[in-house]
Amino acid sequence: MTEKFDAIVVGAGMAGNAAALTMAKRGLKVLQIERGEYPGAKNVQGAILYADAVEKLVPGFRDDAPLERHLVEQRFWMMDDTSHTGLHYRSEDFNEEKPNRYTIIRSQFDRWLSRQVQEAGGLVLCETTVTELLTDGRGRVIGVRTDRRDGDVLADVVILAEGVNGLLGSRAGLRERPAPENVALAVKEMHFLPRETIEARFNLKGEEGVVIEAAGTISRGMTGMGFLYTNRESISIGIGCLVSDMARAGHAPYALLEAFKRHPSVAPLLEGSEVKEYAGHLIPEGGYRAIPKLYGDGWLVAGDAAQLNNAIHREGSNLALTSGQIAGETVAELYARRAAPTARALAAYEARLNDSFVMKDLKKYKDMPALLHAGSQNYFLTYPQLVSKAMQNFVRVDGVPKIEKERRTLRSVLAARSLGGLLGDAVRMARAWR
Amino acid sequence: MHVVVCIKQVPDSAQIRVHPVTNTIMRQGVPTIINPYDLYAVEEALRLRDRHGGTVTVLTMGPPMAEESLRKALTFGADRAVLLTDRFFAGSDTLATSYALASAITAIGERFEPVDIVFTGKQTIDGDTAQVGPGIAKRLGLAQLTYVSRVAALDLAGGTIEVDRRAEGGVQALRTRLPCLVTMLEGTNEIRRGSLPDALRAARAEIAVWSAKDAGIADVTKCGLRGSPTVVKRVFAPTPRAEKATLVDPAGAGAADALIAAMFAARPRLEAELATLVRGY
Q1: What is the pLDDT of residue A106?
Q2: Predicted pLDDT at B21
């Protein structure tokens, strides 16, 4: 006999775990289906965890969640081929009792979060792939089909937290597959180093950690960024660029990462390390305008599958956790009222998302993805090179009078980007940021 | 019919690393798997059950985390799982392990139903001794069928089993009386993918956790480190052997002679032995 659950969650990443945990805690009979060997086995992220979103889900998570380092320092690097111009922010305030951001290793963290789901009574099924959504005659989602024998299972509502590709939703015709200009392909490596080495290299003590976000010639004029995060005994380093840019320019992701690692500003940080892991992942970058339909009769979509990612602030896991939690709460409230999860009833999910930081932030930056994409040559190639040149002009002492140096800098900027171009970029950027 | 399959959770040897300085095995962070040879035992047991009816009980001895491997076996379709875990078992060698498992199998037979066949893999990939299966058979007085590639026939009413066993230079067809112990050879079958109902049942299953006492072990001095005469003298990583290869031009005249001359030069005894052999004919 085909078994029936109150809710099925597809996927055990941040969004799926948040949704499953929220519903299981409220007494729903929840089945969560994950294709990986264990929750987290296939999940790839930088990865930075934002405490606020986790705290709301699992108060006191810091006591036993596997966390790597809490971040006390943020570095933004604007890079050309031989140099970087940096903005560093480091604050003792981040050495607080309840730190704000952590580096994590997803395979460990997701396993822990899934244990919370199981302890709350959720049933988690791994190594099982959902192949399609089951619908009744009128298009209402009533369950899922898996790749196992006798693999159908029913539910009142299905939460799709299947990740960025959204294969299931696309296959069911609920949405389009993400467009190449709206997703970035990121690759990363885990470099192992003794913890003392990491702490000495990055000026850290104890559990402190550093984030480096880098943009510039490393992306060869494509819209993209590099990153370097310190874990306890390893460094995560990676780079991601828009898929459409990569396809057009013909750059291989691994070649970009190799060049980033060889950059004179980066190489000494990695020296002597041992690479233990290589991973690739798509990241939703389309922002507000790329968000697909979020709900329908008997279904909701959350996290990366809903393209909820703030590319400007490099936030994703918190949007996934919060959207998953809101999805879970929406379903749990309908369940408590014994109301059917119709599209009309589930519209509450979108309304609540709109009221949260998730949609407010994405709305704020709704024009940024298109702007960065259209102007990628300027923002990621021309400006970083100009800034480098200006900085070098400023600090190099070579007998040239300062007034002449400043003139040279100004001339090089105007030659690369006319006055009109400069003003236009400034205005466009200000508008999109507003 | 009641079949007990003994499985072991082992570190995935493909992902083990040796510490570059201390030369010790780095266990931390190495994923665990069911000993690959045991999967052939599980599948063979499930096939017998599908054909003849009855139940399959999987048994493992290990730390509490070994429960994962049992749950996986339940996902494949096993009916029952028993985890034998106790601090008394820590540091067991093959002698102590076979003692503990044999005791547990006896207890399983008493508590549930009499055991007809015990299956194990031919060996584990971490110890590679192939001693535990035979050790259990000896202790329980079971007919011992090692390196089995196929269960050819099973007659439950008559209490007999026929198997193919790989032997040096051929295959032995053996018939013996039940109950017996079978150790399965690799490559003999392919582990099935459990159905969704099996997977759901496995995810929900309460796995029986037995202490030494639960397994009916009265004398814990036969368990764990105390019951293990094996002493590890040293752990080391073998240095890779780099033997120089010589290229013999295959087109040139006398290539075969050159090849043989080179082989005899490297292995002088081989030449003498071959010469003796040739004279014998």
Answers
A1: 95
A2: 64
Q: What is the CATH number of the domain that holds A144?
A: 3.50.50.60
Q: Going by DSSP bridges, is the β-strand pair A101-103/A69-79 parallel, antiparallel, or unpaired?
A: antiparallel
Final residue in a domain of this structure, among A242, A266, A284:
A284
Residue B166 confidence (pLDDT): 94
A255 plus A198 within the same structural domain: yes
Same domain for A171 and A298, yes or no, is yes
Chain A partners within 8 Å of B75 (Cβ) = 127
Phi, psi at A44, each rounded to 5°: -120, 130
Chain A: closest CA distance from residue B202 (Å): 9
B174, B140, B139, B146: which is closest to B160 by C-alpha? B174
Q: From the first residue on, what is the mean pLDDT of each consecutive set of 10 residues in chain B (281 residues)?
A: 96 76 69 94 97 97 95 97 96 94 97 97 92 96 96 95 93 96 95 96 94 93 92 80 75 82 86 83 70
A170 & A204 share domain: no
A332-362: pLDDT as tens digits: 999 999 999 999 999 999 999 999 999 999 9
Residue A390 has pLDDT above 80, yes or no: yes
Contacts of A34 in chain B (CB under 8 A): none
Residue found under tokens 């918190």: A318
Indicate if A14 and A163 belong to the same structural domain.
yes
d(CA B46, CA B52): 10
Which residue of chain B comes nearest to A277, CA vs CA? B15
Q: Which of A236, A265, A284 is the last residue in one of the domains?
A: A284
Same domain, yes or no: A201 and A346? no
Cβ distance A40 to A108 under 8 Å?
Answer: yes
Query: Count of alpha carbons within 13 Å of A224, Cβ hemisphere only?
Result: 30
Q: Can you give the pLDDT at residue A284? A: 94
Gyration radius of chain B over CA positions: 23
| Shared-domain flag, residues A148 and A190 | no
pLDDT-derived band at A1, boundaries 50, 70, 90? low
| Domains (range + CATH), chain B | 2-222 (3.40.50.620), 243-281 (no CATH)
Q: Are A52 and A137 in contact (CB under 8 A)?
A: no
A316 domain-assigned: yes
Q: How far is the C-alpha of A277 from the C-alpha of A43, rounded, in Å? A: 13
More confident residue, A256 or A377: A256
- Shortest CA gap B104–chain A (Å): 29
Alpha-carbon distance of A167 to A236, in angstroms, equals: 28
Q: Is the ipTM of this complex over 0.90?
A: no
Q: Given this model, what pLDDT does residue B22 score?
A: 66
A115 is in which domain, residue-wise? 4-66+104-176+292-364
The answer to whether A151 contacts B195, with C-beta atoms less than 8 Å apart, is: yes
The Cβ of residue A89 has, within 10 Å, a number of other Cβ atoms equal to: 11
> Looking at the domain assignment, is residue A148 inside a domain?
yes
Residue A99 in any domain: the answer is no
The closest of B103, B32, B108 to B70, measured between CA atoms, is: B32
Cis before A47 (ω within 30):
yes
pLDDT tens for each residue of A157-183: 999 999 999 999 999 999 989 999 999
- Taking the C-alpha atoms of residue B207 and residue B203, their distance in angstroms, rounded to an integer, is 10
Residue A178, token pair as written in the block: 């993400």
CA distance B18 to chain A (A): 13
State the average pLDDT over residues A309-324.
Answer: 94
Domain match, A423 and A304 both: no
Answer yes or no: do A373 and A413 share one domain.
yes
pLDDT of residue A131: 96
Does residue A90 sit within a domain?
A: no
Q: Are A287 and A369 in contact (CB under 8 A)?
A: yes
Mutation for A interface: B46, B50, B67, B196, most A CBs within 10 A:
B196
